[in-house]
TrEMBL record, chain A:
It comes from Nocardiopsis coralli. Residues 12-145 form the DUF1468 domain. Pfam families: TctB (PF07331). This is Tripartite tricarboxylate transporter TctB family protein. It comes from the Bacteria.
TrEMBL record, chain B:
It comes from Nocardiopsis coralli. Residues 498-511 have a biased composition (Basic and acidic residues). It holds the Pfam family TctA. Keywords: Membrane, Transmembrane, Transmembrane helix. This is Tripartite tricarboxylate transporter permease.
Length: 158, 532
């Protein structure tokens, strides 16, 4: 673990937060004035948040704290890959439906986390996706998007 | 005390459709808590959508069973493999694992289940007696009181962020900032929405919460997914005797009120209760040297307090709608999904729910005592046999369902993924997650409270001198002063070390991989805390 590297991380975050607070402060001047007498108005809290966040960012830059060990390159690749997979999953959820999106996501995620047996991957992915769909959409009546499968019996029923 | 309401509550709970969810919740909770990495918060958040189609009471019983069960069961891996399953069990690690290494794992597990259950029972009794009184007082609370309570919750949750005051405050302020997005509560002006209807509707706290806690934890597990095996632990038979029970009774009696009272403070919950009670038991003991080396009384104290704290955390949640800890924040979501609002009106408007929760939560802890005593051997086999590789992808799929199902809105799923990444980065850089969630919930309460107060009092500040606002203001100043004093006393650069008397830092309690990490760095949870 490199102490210098981790304090630098805090400083970078501090600068980003400082920029965020300045943006918020600037935006708050576009907010309408209060509608009632003595109401501090819709811009009051955003300004307080901006100023407090700005002061705290300065405190972070001035006295950065130590953070825990950061992941190595391999770990970063793993995290980046699963984050990207999750994003794609979220974007495909409605267009192709819960069952197909979840089966694909599970298969890719299992591969990524180190499962290497094709039969296990196929069975668990399809099993989890279909099982959860039946449980939620059929038994618990929670709406899940059906996407490409809509109209099919059971799997396509919302 | 209103006997009639209690009878309504008993009647509501004695329905097979409710009882089954008490048992089910408890079982699920024990499994969830025993699994390293899945805390009570993650379990409750991920399983929240199961309750949407249920009636409010059975839904709450399922979630409360998970809450109580998971907070207890987090100590099973804490004792067996030195990895707390939930942060509240961090105080049990030293003594529990020391006993396991001396071949007394079964005894330690028995102490854990007896003390957790008795602490929980005592806490729920106190909750049932105390909450209606507080709700009666809270009926008279106006916007000024709610404003100050919301600020108090924020300052407390930031100040208990173990020597990370600045980062805790940043996390809390960012949470308040997130709540700014969408229509403001008085003028209905769509702040920071950039003409996007999804943003104008506001950021839902359930997707944020699932992202911060469940998704980010899954990301952490993926990061560490290469080459690990679970530790092994053998459990011998142990038969509890009366004299054994007498030995652990004093710490249980001492720790129940401690755990309950600390649990009440908005934003604390069981994590901190356990450490305070442990230190008190140590102070009260004549022979202090055995604490940390396998002292049954230490385990009993920590275990009692953490579950008494779960009941305490329900007090501000039910009576004021202000979460006692992050898990109760999810419970607020579970209640509001049904169109109900936690607060003093709930006590008069839905007595079957409120008193049903009291009676049902009591039953939860009785069920837990039985299940826990019968199943110690089973749980230890379970945590060493679970294929975690199949678990974490499934957790992500369940998280998707949870985020989507609240409003059937794909935008919420995106929000969840984004906060999964943010939560992961926050964990890596030492920012506590809880203040952000608390900020997101209490931000709007604080804002509308303050603005209404100013409108009512014609812009003056005289209301600050009224009795309840004065007390609340004093508590706010105290909590900040306490944190600042501690931050100043702790020299820069050694901040992660602490002095052995306070809860360990975030990364030590939140995850659990010390012993699972075969490529390990020798870093065990808690090793940075108390070298003794």
């Amino acid at each position: 673990m490199n102490a210098a590297a981790t304090t630098r991380g805090d400083r970078v975050i501090g600068v980003i937060l400082l920029a965020l607070s300045a943006t918020l402060l600037a935006l708050s001047f576009g907010f309408p004035p209060p509608g009632q007498e003595h109401d501090p108005g819709t811009a009051a809290l955003p300004r307080i948040v901006a100023v407090v966040l700005g002061l705290l960012s300065l405190a972070l830059i001035w006295r950065p704290e130590r953070s825990g060990p950061l992941p190595d390159t391999g770990g970063l690749v793993q995290v980046g890959a699963i984050a990207l997979l999750s994003l794609v999953y979220a974007l495909l959820l409605e267009p192709i439906g819960f069952v197909l999106a979840s089966t694909g996501f599970m298969a890719a995620a299992l591969l990524l986390i180190g499962v290497r047996r094709p039969v296990a991957i196929a069975a668990v992915s399809a099993g989890v996706a279909v099982g959860l769909h039946l449980l939620f959409a059929q038994l618990l009546e929670v709406f899940l998007p059906t996407g490409l499968l809509s109209g099919l019996p059971l799997l396509g029923a919302a | 005390m209103n006997i009639e309401n209690w009878l309504i509550g008993i009647d509501a709970v004695l329905d097979p459709g409710v009882l089954i969810f008490i048992v089910l919740g408890c079982l699920v909770g024990i499994v969830v808590g025993a699994l390293p990495g899945i805390s009570a918060t993650v379990g409750v958040a991920v399983l929240l959508p199961f309750t949407f189609s249920l009636d409010p009471l059975p839904g709450m019983m399922l979630l409360l069973g998970i809450y109580g069960g998971a907070v207890y069961a987090g100590s099973i891996p804490a004792i067996l493999i030195r990895s707390p399953g939930t942060p509240a069990s961090a105080a049990t690690v030293e003594d529990g694992n020391a006993m396991a290494k001396q071949g007394r794992a079964a005894e330690a597990l028995s102490i854990s289940v007896v003390a957790s259950s008795l602490g929980g029972l005592a806490g729920v009794v106190a909750l049932g007696l105390f909450a209606p009184l507080l709700a009666g007082i809270a009926l008279a609370f106006g916007p000024a009181e709610y404003f100050l309570l919301a600020v108090l919750a924020l300052t407390v949750v930031a100040s208990v962020s173990e020597n990370r005051l600045v980062k805790g405050l940043i996390s809390g302020v960012l949470g308040v900032g997130l709540a700014l997005i969408g229509l403001d509560t008085i003028q209905a002006y769509p702040r920071l929405s950039f003409d996007d209807p999804n943003l104008a509707a506001g950021i839902g706290f359930i997707p944020v919460l699932i992202g911060l806690f469940a998704v980010s934890e899954a990301f952490v597990q993926f990061e560490r997914s290469r080459g690990r095996t679970l530790g092994q632990a053998a459990v011998q038979k142990f038969r509890p005797t009366l004299s054994w029970l007498r030995g652990i009774t004093p710490p249980i009696l001492l720790s129940s009120p401690i755990g309950f009272i600390i649990g009440i403070i908005p934003g604390t919950g069981g994590d901190i209760s356990a450490f305070v009670a442990y230190n008190e038991a140590k102070r009260a003991a004549r022979d202090k040297r055995r604490f940390g080396k396998g002292e049954p009384r230490g385990i009993a104290a920590a275990e009692t307090a953490k579950n008494a704290g779960t009941a305490g955390a329900l007090v501000p949640m039910l009576t004021l709608g202000i979460p006692g800890d992050v898990t109760t924040a999810v419970l607020i979501g579970a209640i509001t999904v049904h169109g109900l609002r936690p607060g003093p009106e709930l006590f008069t408007g839905s007595p079957e729910l409120v008193y049903g929760i009291f009676v049902g939560f009591l039953l939860t802890y009785l069920v837990m005592l039985v299940i826990g005593l019968l199943g110690t051997g089973l749980w230890s086999r379970l945590i060493t046999g679970i294929p975690t590789r199949y678990l974490w992808p499934t957790v992500l799929v369940l998280s998707m369902i949870g985020a989507f199902a609240v409003r059937s809105n794909p935008f919420d799923v995106l929000v969840m993924v984004v906060f999964g990444v943010i939560g992961y980065l926050m964990t890596k850089f030492g920012f506590p997650l809880a203040p952000m969630v608390i900020g997101l919930i209490v931000g709007p309460i604080a804002e509308s409270g303050y603005r209404r107060t100013m409108i009512i009092h014609d812009g003056g500040f005289g209301w600050l001198l009224e009795p309840i606002p004065l007390v609340l203001s004093a508590l706010i100043v105290l909590s900040v002063g306490f944190a600042v004093r501690r931050a100043v006393r702790s020299p820069s650069g050694t901040e992660a070390e602490g002095d052995g008397h306070e809860p360990p830092a975030q990364e030590e309690t939140r995850t659990v991989d010390g012993l699972q990490d075969t490529e390990g760095t020798g870093h065990e949870p808690g090793s940075g805390r108390d070298p003794a």
